[in-house]
Amino acid sequence: MKLHRLLCITTVFLLLMPLAAHALQIPAYTPNVVDPAGLLSAQDTERVNQTLLKIRNEQQIWGAVYLVPSLQGERIEQVAAGAFEQWQLGKRGADNGLLLVLAIEDRRSRFEVGYGLEGTLPDVIAKRALDDVLAPKMRQGDTAGAVIDAFQFMAGVAAKDPATLALLQQAEAGKRGKVIRGLVAWLGFVALVWVFQPLVRHLAGRRRAKLIAQHPELAGEDEHVAGSKARPRRFLGLFVKGFMTLNPGCFVLILSAVFAPAFAIIIALELLFLVLTLRYAGVRYRSAGQFRAFLERVANERASLIRKGHVAQSDSGAYTYTSAYYASQSSSSSSSSSSGGGSSGGGGASSSW
């Protein structure tokens, strides 16, 4: 029994060793910049440290920054919380610690806020500091400048600094503007999806009525190759329109909200599509000559289908599609394959600076 227990303990220990080896080890605290890999120069470290000391003296915010090359597979939230608790940041009883963690290779960042500052610096403010203040300079490679600006922004919000609050309001207005921009483009797209067919029918009907009023002899002409006995698939049409509203429509909304040039292009395309619709809807009714040319094309197509046995004339004189026509349509549609040599688009999403 003792040997069996010893083997079990040894096995568990060996299995846990790789996990322990790969876990990110939090170093000892070095005020106020913890940079065990030396990612900042001595001069940049001093700049950051002086900024944090000034914020501590003026705003009673005990800030610190922890820089790591990589998270080694751990979540940055866990690393930040673990470092915050291990170092016990902030003044006892005030809980006014503020920790910024930067994982350089992973391009991840996090502000961990002490309990005493959560009312003054809520999550939305920390998110704004990371996205709008820190991220741009991190993308430029200015790590020290990014850290300093992010902490100064947080301190400015805590102090209710007018310039910082104005910057925050400007960012919020810009965010609302992006949402409105996306909704405008999406509503234009949805209007085209749902109104296009009724609009075309309405315009064509008006132009036909005007043409017939001028040329009554064209009133009785048959404009269709043949009639169909199949029931109209109304629900299929509604499904397609709903799918277009939600699927491509979401891409239109997101692209327009995120990228101003995309919004301009989409709006221009929507307006162009609307103009072309107004211009060419019912174009065959523009003149008697155009309408007669259209009727001749219909008659030629009908004659061709009659020769193939796909259209027949009923006792009442009306032309209808035959069962052979529907059989040919079914066989041609079933010959297509979903395997066309396509490749994955590699879709996905990630958050980084």
TrEMBL record:
Superkingdom, natural source: Bacteria
Transmembrane feature ranges: 179-200, 235-256, 262-282
Keyword Membrane: yes
InterPro entries according to UniProt: TPM_dom
Family matches, as Pfam families: TPM_phosphatase (PF04536)
Gly residues: compositionally biased ranges: 339-353
Residues making up the signal peptide according to the UniProt record: 1-23
Keyword Cell inner membrane found: no
Domain TPM stretches: 33-152
Amino acid composition bias (Low complexity), ranges on this chain: 329-338
Keyword tags: Membrane, Signal, Transmembrane, Transmembrane helix
Region (Disordered): 329-353
Protein name as annotated: TPM domain-containing protein
Annotated organism of origin: Pseudoxanthomonas composti
